[in-house]
Design a protein that fits this description.
3-stranded antiparallel sheet, flat
């Protein structure tokens, strides 16, 4: 028996979005300013990806002090007002 469109169970996943994360990482006496673009469905997902990035970047560190300066979703719709007068057709 063939399935109709009504019989198909569509899997809906939470769409992943791009987030910009700006943070300072202090290891010992060295402080590094980072700016990363991470993908995640929500803020908790992005925080999990940030932890993975920190583990890969600072493999030898025993302690990392992290200060998140900015964590926000990247807008997919461009703001046309920002480009007003900047470009001509």
């Amino acid at each position: 028996m063939t399935n109709t469109w009504e019989d198909v169970a569509w899997e809906t996943e939470t769409p992943t979005k791009e987030w910009v994360v700006e943070y300072m990482a202090k290891v010992g006496e060295d402080t590094t300013h980072h700016l990363s673009v991470l993908r995640g469905a929500n803020m908790e997902d992005v925080q999990r990806h940030l932890m993975q990035e920190l583990r890969l970047t600072y493999r030898e560190a025993t302690e990392i002090e992290v200060t998140v300066l900015r964590m926000e979703e990247i807008e997919t719709e461009p703001n046309a007002a920002m480009f007003s007068g900047a470009f001509t057709p």
